[in-house]
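dumping the sequnces here before i forget
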Amino acid sequence: MKNPALIFLGAFLINNIVLMRFLGLCPFFGVSTAVETATGMGMAVIFVMTLASWITWIVFNVVLLPLNLVFLRTAVFILTIASLVQLVEMFLKKYYRTLYNAMGIYLPLITTNCAILGITFLNIDNKFNFLNATVFAIGTGIGFMVVMITFAAIRERLDLAPINPSLKGYPISFIAAGLMALAFLGFSGLFGLM
Amino acid sequence: MTSTKNMVLTLLIVAIVCSVVLSFVYSYTEPRIAETQAQLTLGGIKQVINAQEFVEIIPDTLWKAVDSSGILTGIVFRVFPQGYGGPIPITVGLDLNGKITGVRIASAAEGLKETPGLGVKITEPEFKDQFIDKCAPEAQLKNDGGEIDAITAATISSRAVCNGIKKGIETYLNYLETPIDKRCVFSDAREFVEIIKDTLWYALKDADTIGIVFVGFTQGYLDCREFMVGVGTDAKISGVKILYSSETEGIGEAIREKEFLDKFKKGSAEAITGATVSSQVLIDAIEEYITRYKEYLK
Amino acid sequence: MKRRNLFTRGLVKENAVLVLMIGLCPALAVSGTVRDAFGMGIAATFVLLFSNVMISIMRKKIPNEVRIPVFILIISTFVTIIDYVMQAFQPDLYRALGIFVPLIVVNCMILGRAEAFAYKNSVIDSILDGLGVGLGFTLALTVMGAIREILGNGTFLGMAILGEGFKESPVIFMILPPGAFLVIGVLKALINKYVKKETQ
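..and the predicted 3d for all of it:
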């Protein structure tokens, strides 16, 4: 599966990061209460995911691998991502205010997030080259955003619906997410048919 | 407010101590991990064919099965055809007649992504043992002209396995032949003396060493190629033969063409230019091997 | 706070997964079978415990401004240790847990306890706290794993317990992603209904 188009499709639909891979659940449930916040969060995720993939890919293939320091991968990646996001946030705040207002506030939330770190690990485990890693990151980010916006729309409706008090809040959200996951399962045979 | 010096110092010390601790843990566990992995692979291979020893030909993809005296009894290869939910890891054993001796499919715990309850049934003996004692044309679904029963409601997974196995046999069948006659790359030699097992031989004529013959391979990003080269003591190439190539049909086939290979006979590797990327990779690899084995030419 | 409360708090009242809703990713991803769920719980508890201890021991020496990076360094060291040790001694479990082993490093409960507790309390207290939260996490995961494995595969730790007939066609849905969401949703609903919160 080295074809960038297939990788994109896989990342977006077939192995959707939230509904199939179970990564990024905390921001998914935390920030999806309104469509607007979901959009901002989604954009931030695409942005950070791509940047983080680039930096960690370079660090791994140019520094860790040649120097035989692969065992430092976990520590190095997480620190790199945390620093990167910190720098990006400061940079955006100072020079690109509008962009910062749109998504900057979500950046700290996704720093130590399993979605970002998970994708950087997967890039290495799948032995992607730079282009494929980029496609994978963008595809995953878009998959995350699409699912989050859909889910936010559902939650906005749920807030107004009459629901049994014990189900209100997290429980019904989980069940709704489960139904979405069920729908996405339908994509899983796409590879076999291609 | 702590001084900057203090902050940086703490960070540095912690980072260094952590790195040191981790490198210890790594060096302690790494050999064990490698060994477990090798055991696992060997275990998998042993399940598909009866043999004493295995010689890895293509890393993690192809092994020769030999008995205690070193004679070839079969081969084992791995294929990863695209199934319903993802690639299906299949290990297949083949005897000298090209008949399947055993099939092993990785389980869901090992990464199989087929539908639980349906597609994963391909790992069960009822399905996979059907392949035993069949050759390539028979290893197809009954609907496709072969003799294999598909799993009800899991046709895609079943078909994927059949196609994968069939393609694997077609690709690696060459390896069942008796060792390639080295004279096809060094026609002047009468005798060959093995220096490095299955890799390097002296070419002799009338008890004089007139050159060497070696087997090498290139492992590129997408492809893998095994070739045999004969080189005379004057460092001129006497012949090149491609033993195996995993290039997609059509694209890399050109390098097997006689015209291309004959170019080598005219001189040293440097003098040949590659028409395509794959032929250039081959030329570079041959050059490298000649340099590596240069000392044997004296 | 009484020592005993330190331990039980993380176990039930402030259970990471079912009350505080953190550490959801591994909870849903690896709770398909009891073995995987329990294994992940123990691995995370190991990291939590040792990180808590280390940070508590060093708490007077870590400058406040750089505490987060230092926590991350320490936590990731223990995560890497358990990563390689599991690879070497429990390769089957390692393969089943996949990337979620190194992802323990971003499990909010570990960084959370380091910041909220270990940095400010004694070593003994930190041990109790770490054990409580970690075992609570393990408990939640194992319960989910049990439900999903029994209904979705007819087995418990690989042994058929609902009869061979059920094993032939179990509720496969349960071990697939949607099942995970459903199970945790229902569990949370039950907890909301039957467990009275102290502060409301």
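Chain A has a mean pLDDT of 86.
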